[in-house]
Design goal:
The complex is a heterodimer of chains A (469) and B (113).
Chain A (H helix, E strand, L loop, with lengths): L6 H9 L5 H19 L2 E4 L2 H13 L10 E5 L26 H8 L3 E6 L19 E2 L2 E5 L5 H8 L5 E6 L5 H7 L2 E4 L19 E6 L2 H11 L17 H4 L8 E5 L9 H16 L3 E5 L7 H16 L17 H14 L5 H24 L2 E5 L15 H6 L5 H6 L3 E8 L5 E7 L5 H14 L12
Parallel strand pairs in A: 2-3, 2-6, 9-10, 9-11
Antiparallel strand pairs in A: 1-3, 4-5, 6-8, 7-8, 7-12, 11-13, 12-13
Chain B lengths: L1 H7 L10 H11 L5 H18 L36 H5 L5 E2 L2 E2 L9
Classes of the chains: A alpha/beta (469), B mainly alpha (113).
């Protein structure tokens, strides 16, 4: 199974002609045929003939990019010229974008081969890919459980090796939560690190575009290709893009990791707590120091997020009026309506100050709290989700529980920080457990080296899901 | 402070919102909501609003709001037409469900006398 190889190895083998991009792409389609009916990760599968024709072309004119000839998938939240984009909502059921998102264009220019547009919670609203108009994605580790969300589709596909890597969008955990539940690695980037042009907006001040893959190293290869300033996204940063793959090997000896004790309280599943406590020891054995710290504002993260994100989404989704494209607003799901209504309420006259403005002020307090801590630490070691992969219906039917699934992820978006999510163990029934390393603004490189060092001495990330056995 | 008032508002389904509030918000948001949905949303949106109200406990008198985290301000570009990003009329209309003579069709806004 060549899709199980690292990007570094695939790039090498494509160039030594051990196998071709055509072979690799065909292999992915063969696997999709076998596995996809069980997990339902795709909304739109790119026509096999088109993908193979592109692979042939790349084989004939191999470029310098390490991603050339490598099949990948995107969460269905990105405009891809000529390939349907739905955001998992029937409102966009037959929408074919007339232009491509910058991230898509960059990957096309790098020679990567798009094979699918992936399932998600409609408009990014959810943590389980159940709130989709195209049927839920199933977890490749346990088909009775959710693949996480909102980007459950791309994560499940990467976990099942149907694709070498994926592109997700993280507004409150949508890249990291499914990464944790599917035993893959993913980077939620610093706000502004990757252009959002052509990304379907959920909450514009929180949305980020990032890679999901098998390892920190693979994520580094992808981020190198997609990061950077874009004149079409005024919030994209002009900070130079580091050579992430070179900096990966930097020693982590002496790196300082913070361990916020409030994060490891009652709200956290004991299995996740135990797994991350073990990971803590691994970091210590690698020469890092891990210190207990206090981040007492944890409990206010979800309230801030569930004011800001619904407020912004109520504005962003206002454009779907069925005039220029798409169908009518009656097709929003219950969860979409809940968020639009909550946001509209928080922004409405008389309540604006008490809710929206208040949340913006508390956002400042969060930024201050994290900035203070990250002056003295290279990373914060945090759980990704408080709970193990949920059974179907568990989150969908309980809006409060659905919100609490985001406990550890939303703060990172509120502050704008980068966070690397990576596998760190398994619980009962072989369900995957993830952890996240959160760093200061634009510290992706340092997070990658921490993750890479951890993955060199552990093999959680190399385990294959049940559905492939 | 209307918000404080809202918190003390009592009705049968939720301590925070009434179905009349939901109908009003639905109108503002231009989201069609059925009668049954309105009842469910009253409870669920009310529950969310009640939960997020816990921010009220944090003192923020002298705190400045943060709307975005880039530190960038007034990012401008030259006021020039970028022809590489222009759609043809056909492309612009391609995804519209209702068109007429090369235009988008919209519902009437003004009523006839």
């Amino acid at each position: 199974m060549n899709s199980d190889l690292s990007i570094r190895d695939i790039a090498k083998k494509l160039r030594s002609k051990e196998f071709s991009s055509y072979d690799l792409t065909r292999e992915c389609y063969d696997l999709i045929e076998k596995v996809e009916p069980k997990i339902h990760a795709f909304i739109t599968l790119v026509d096999k003939k088109d993908a193979l024709a592109r692979a042939r072309k790349i084989d004939e004119h191999m470029t310098q990019s390490p991603l050339a000839g490598i099949p990948y998938v995107m969460k269905d939240a990105y405009l891809t010229r000529g390939v349907r984009t739905t955001a998992a909502s029937k409102i966009l059921d037959d929408f074919i974008a007339p232009y491509s998102a910058t991230v898509h264009k960059k990957l096309e220019d790098a020679g990567a081969i798009l094979i699918g547009k992936m399932n998600m919670d409609a408009w990014g609203h959810g943590a389980s890919t159940e709130n989709t108009d195209y049927g839920p994605s199933k977890n490749p580790w346990d088909l009775t459980r959710s693949a996480g969300g909102s980007g459950g589709g791309p994560a499940a596909a990467v976990a099942a090796r149907l694709s070498v890597f994926g592109i997700g969008e993280d507004t409150g955990g949508s890249i990291r939560n499914p990464a944790a539940w599917n035993n893959i690695t993913a980077m939620k980037v610093t706000y502004g690190r990757v252009s959002r042009y052509g990304a379907i907006a959920y909450a514009s001040s929180l949305d980020t575009v990032g890679p999901t893959a098998k390892t920190a190293e693979d994520c580094a290869f992808v981020l190198e290709a997609i990061a950077g300033h874009d004149p079409y996204d005024a919030t994209s940063s002009k900070q130079p893009v580091p050579n992430y793959t070179k900096e990966l090997e930097k020693s982590i000896k002496g790196k300082r990791i913070a361990f916020p004790t409030e994060f490891y309280g009652e709200a956290l599943d004991p299995e996740i707590n135990a797994a991350i406590t073990k990971a803590r020891e691994v970091f210590v054995s690698l020469g890092a120091t891990v210190t207990d710290v206090s981040l007492p504002m944890l409990e206010y993260g979800v309230p801030v997020y569930y004011i800001l994100a619904p407020s912004e989404t109520s504005s962003n989704l206002g454009r779907y009026d069925g005039v220029r494209y798409g169908y009518g607003r009656n097709l929003f799901t219950k969860e979409n309506k809940r968020r639009i209504m909550t946001g509209t309420y928080a922004l409405s006259s008389g309540y604006y100050d008490a809710y929206y403005k208040k949340a913006l002020k508390v956002r400042s307090l969060f930024i201050e709290e994290y900035q203070k801590l990250l002056v003295n630490y290279d990373a914060i070691l945090s759980p990704v989700t408080p709970i193990m992969p949920s059974k179907f219906g568990e989150l969908l039917n309980d809006p409060m529980k659905n919100m609490m699934a985001d406990l550890y992820t939303v703060i990172v978006n509120i502050v704008g920080l980068p966070a690397l999510s990576l596998p760190c163990g398994f619980g009962k029934g072989g369900l995957p457990i993830g952890m996240q390393l959160v760093g200061s603004m634009f510290s992706e490189s340092s997070l990658f080296s921490l993750g890479h060092a951890y993955q060199k001495v552990t093999d959680w990330h190399m385990q294959l899901p049940q559905v492939l056995k | 402070m209307k918000a404080t008032l809202a918190k003390t508002k009592k009705n049968t389904s939720s301590p925070i919102l009434t179905t009349a509030d939901i109908d009003h918000i639905a109108k503002l948001a231009n989201v069609p909501v059925s009668k049954e949905q309105a009842i469910e949303l009253t409870e669920q949106v009310g529950e969310t609003v009640e939960y997020v109200s816990k921010l009220g406990a944090l003192p923020t008198e002298n705190v400045v709001e943060t709307a975005q985290v880039t530190g960038l301000e007034n990012v401008l570009r030259e006021d020039e037409i970028d022809t590489t990003r222009m759609f043809t009329q056909e492309e612009a209309l391609k995804n519209a469900k209702r068109t007429y003579n090369g235009f988008f069709m919209v519902d009437a806004v003004l009523e006839e006398k």
